[in-house]
UniProtKB/TrEMBL annotation:
<dbReference type="GO" id="GO:0004309">
    <property type="term" value="F:exopolyphosphatase activity"/>
</dbReference>
<dbReference type="GO" id="GO:0005615">
    <property type="term" value="C:extracellular space"/>
</dbReference>
<keyword id="KW-0378">Hydrolase</keyword>
<dbReference type="GO" id="GO:0000298">
    <property type="term" value="F:endopolyphosphatase activity"/>
</dbReference>
<dbReference type="GO" id="GO:0006798">
    <property type="term" value="P:polyphosphate catabolic process"/>
</dbReference>
<feature type="signal peptide">
    <location>
        <begin position="1"/>
        <end position="19"/>
    </location>
</feature>
<dbReference type="GO" id="GO:0008081">
    <property type="term" value="F:phosphoric diester hydrolase activity"/>
</dbReference>
<protein>
    <submittedName>
        <fullName>Metallo-dependent phosphatase-like protein</fullName>
    </submittedName>
</protein>
<dbReference type="Pfam" id="PF00149">
    <property type="entry name" value="Metallophos"/>
</dbReference>
<dbReference type="InterPro" id="IPR029052">
    <property type="entry name" value="Metallo-depent_PP-like"/>
</dbReference>
<feature type="domain" description="Calcineurin-like phosphoesterase">
    <location>
        <begin position="41"/>
        <end position="253"/>
    </location>
</feature>
<dbReference type="GO" id="GO:0000324">
    <property type="term" value="C:fungal-type vacuole"/>
</dbReference>
<dbReference type="InterPro" id="IPR004843">
    <property type="entry name" value="Calcineurin-like_PHP"/>
</dbReference>
<keyword id="KW-0732">Signal</keyword>
<keyword id="KW-0325">Glycoprotein</keyword>
């Protein structure tokens, strides 16, 4: 029987061995940390890419480092949208100031998926190892100041631009991230820059994977070869199999991952579908959510075209769909306006029935009842599934991960990934800066709501809850556009998807609607590329 603890990426997870302590926040005792109010929201922020050499008025052809008077779109004060320029300090500082003022009192934790150094895209100013470390230290200090000092846990992961030589940076990052990594995770971090940490005491944890060990461009590793148990990627996946949850930087695909890392990573996600609610990534800079994570990916042109083609192949009707075969991958848009515009997401998740104070969660009677129910159901939903293909009979494939005997498969129609229940992801709101070029020293920038996945009707209390004085709004009213701050709206451009939650059935429903509905598909494409060029 598996002892069930909860791990969070988009939601909950279950692990027998995890008992990580809560982060000890700078200047805050663990007792003080445990009395945070639970809001049912978290921030996902990624790809900040601050650039100390960014110069106002510089040319895009120089990565915004040097002027060229022939350039018709010189570098702006707060950044240069749809360019190959990284973030000026003015943009990164404003972003943290904005989050501090508007969101630090409204969220439970922060998922921070890497890339805190500039791109190495200027031959005249090659990026140095000291610069990478200095920029990561600077961003980490802002994370500590804005969130950790207020008792809000922050869970970082490495980005592909946070490294010099992929596997020789661990000691330095153990210092840079010392405030984020609990002592009990020190061994795993020193082994490969991956770790686990509780983010809601005695209830919810997160795991940060170092996906650079899976990344094809990392030539210093062996690519998760089944015959090499000492390969760093294989060791990490063995560790992941024990932890059963992850959020990471480089999103999984056969294009990004080694051919042996990808099928095993997919198999783990599907095998523990009852414990993994979703996956959070940076790296691609797009706003893209993939519904199906199969062991085979298609290549049919642009990412948008590939997604729509895949969505079109989802079996109909959905009632007959085998939900066991699906997992959800969320790729968040980036802060850096390269090649789109600054953006971040606020996710919400189900905390209905729980105490609102984190110090009460571990002993909460409702949580204990849910855990007991999950333990009983887990015993009745274990099965062995095999997916061997004819080519596995060939000698050259016999030692491939995808051809090995499969272990117990865990799926449950009542799990939080399949049915809206405790810890299920409910939706997200994406905020962006569409008028980036208009802002300068005399015109303050603004992050605006771009869209939400929620139904319009969920933004305000219904008849049953409208008299509750402490009603928890999905998005605080002051952060909504004025037209949505009062109840009564019957339609809005900000709520195109109308998803009741982000469970697998809801995502598949959206996927099939996107395949059939041209107008909705065009909105999806617009959000995906944020007005920029399709890639």
């Amino acid at each position: 029987m598996r002892t069930r603890s909860l791990i969070f990426t988009l939601g909950s997870c279950c692990v027998a061995s995890l008992a990580s302590p809560t982060q000890v926040v700078l200047g805050t005792s663990q007792v003080e940390l445990r009395i945070r109010q639970l809001h049912g929201r978290f921030l996902h922020i990624t790809d900040i890419h601050p650039d100390p050499f960014y110069e106002l008025g510089a040319s895009q052809s120089s990565a915004c480092h040097r002027p060229n008077f022939k350039d018709e779109r010189p570098a702006g004060y707060y950044g240069t949208p749809y360019s190959f320029c990284d973030s000026p300090f003015s943009l990164t500082n404003f972003t943290f100031d904005f989050l501090d003022e508007h969101w630090s009192s409204e969220i439970d934790f922060v998922i921070w998926t890497g890339d805190n150094a500039r791109h190495d895209n200027d031959d005249d100013l090659p990026r140095t190892l000291d610069e990478i470390y200095d920029l990561n230290r600077a961003v980490a200090k802002r994370m500590e100041h804005v969130f950790l000092k207020k008792g809000i846990p922050v869970v970082p992961s490495l980005g592909n631009n946070d490294i010099w030589r992929p596997n020789k940076i661990i000691e330095e990052f153990s210092s840079i991230w010392s405030a984020f990594i609990p002592p009990t995770s020190s061994a795993s971090f020193h082994q490969g820059a991956y770790f686990s940490t509780e983010i809601i005491p005695d209830a919810v944890a997160a795991i940060s994977l170092n996906t650079l060990y899976f990344y094809k461009k990392n030539h210093a590793v062996g690519g998760c070869d089944y015959t090499d148990p000492k390969d760093p990627g294989t060791i990490q996946l063995d560790w992941l199999e024990e932890q059963l949850e992850a959020f990471r930087h480089v999103p999984p695909s056969e294009a990004n991952y080694f051919s042996e890392c990808y099928p095993r990573f997919v198999e783990l996600n599907l095998r523990f579908q009852d414990t993994i609610l979703g996956n959070l990534y940076g790296f691609s800079f797009l706003d893209a959510d993939e519904i199906n994570m199969s062991s085979k990916t298609s290549s049919r042109g642009t990412l948008f075209e590939t997604l729509i083609a895949d969505f079109s192949e989802i079996p109909a009707p959905l009632e007959d769909t085998r939900y066991d075969d699906y997992a959800v991958v969320n790729v968040n848009a980036a802060i850096v306006p390269n090649p789109y515009i600054p953006s971040f997401r606020i996710f919400t998740y189900n905390v209905t029935g729980l105490s609102t104070l984190t110090k009460d969660i571990g002993s909460d009677p409702y949580l204990q009842t849910i855990k007991a129910t999950q333990r009983r159901r887990a015993l009745n939903h274990e099965q062995v599934r095999t997916f061997k293909k004819p080519k596995c009979e060939h000698k050259k494939f016999r030692n491939a991960w995808r051809c090995q005997p499969h272990k117990l498969w865990h799926s449950d129609s009542e799990s939080p990934s399949r049915r809206n229940s405790l810890w299920s992801p409910l939706g997200f709101a994406q905020f962006y800066m569409p008028r980036l070029e208009e802002f300068d020293q005399t015109h303050d920038p603004e992050f605006e709501l771009e869209y939400m996945t929620f139904p319009l009707s969920s933004l305000h209390p219904d008849e049953q809850t409208q008299n509750i004085t402490d009603h928890q709004y999905i998005i605080p009213l002051q952060l909504l556009p004025e037209e949505l701050r009062e109840p009564g709206a019957v339609e809005s451009e900000y709520t195109p998807y109308e998803l009741n939650d982000l469970t697998i059935p809801s995502w598949l429903d959206l996927a099939t609607r996107l395949a059939k509905n041209k107008e909705l598909r065009l909105r999806f494409k617009e959000f995906m590329y944020m007005g920029g060029v399709e890639e």
